[in-house]
Amino acid sequence: MKLEAFDKLYQRAAERKGGVAQLNLLLPPVENQAALGRLPDDRYLAAFTKKVFQSGFVWRVVEQKWHDFEAVFFGFNIEKILMMPEDMLERKAADPKIIRNFNKVKTIKANAQMIFEEQQNGHSFAEFIQQWPSDNIIGLWAHLKKHGARLGGNTGPYALRALGKDTFLLSRDVEAYFRAHDLISGGLQTKASLTTIQAAFNRWQQESGLSLTQLSRLVAYATGDNYIQVHEDDS
User: Is residue 117 part of a domain?
Assistant: First the structure.
């Protein structure tokens, strides 16, 4: 099936959300992408770690314990994390102040190593993320999956979104849209599916000037169960 034009997609989302004004209120603001390059690299390790621990777990519990995570792991200082011997990592994984999951704790050092190795290329990891082109965001997902630990699937993309990197997300509604329009078949994370989805978002971005984040939300609003509405006291 031919890819739907942005105007048609936008109009359907507006109709489902009560009009253009209401829809625009629901679209997130555009993040300052230049600011991404000024974030300390420890904030990237923190974001990756939080999403790794939130994956398959109650997000609220991770949030409640996050202050202790920061304290136990030296504020996610890259050099200090990499200097930890294995026995120290095991002791920290058993600390009752955090969520005790040694396999997930091990990703902290592994992802610190990924960040450190990128720093050896003459720039910060933050600059590396900031400079990655949005028209190949799936390439950045693949990089995190290959060089990081437990950053495949939606974990890496959700961490990027939390940091402010412009990216679409493969939510259930976004997946449902592409399947309903016969644009993808088979696995969602296959190279063919991801390439098709990236191409669709690239075209919509060219037509609309919206960010990938806004477009991702728009596709969900045009497809999903329509739970999110703007109330009078929210406007």
Answer: yes
Side-chain-facing half-sphere of 166: CA atoms under 13 Å: 25
Cα-based distances in Å from 114 to 111, 147, 150, 183, 197: 5, 6, 12, 34, 27
pTM of this prediction exceeds 0.85: yes
For residue 235, pLDDT over 50 is answered with no
Task: Report the C-alpha gap between 223 and 13 in whole angstroms.
Answer: 8
Task: Decide if 170 contacts 152 (C-beta within 8 A).
Answer: no
Q: Which domain holds residue 90?
A: 34-163
User: What are the tens digits of pLDDT across the range 40-66?
Assistant: 999 999 999 999 999 999 999 999 999
**Tokens at residue 154, please?**
């939606």
**In angstroms, rounded to a whole number, what is the distance separating the alpha carbons of residues 84 and 91?**
11
Give the CATH number of the domain where residue 144 resides. 1.10.340.30
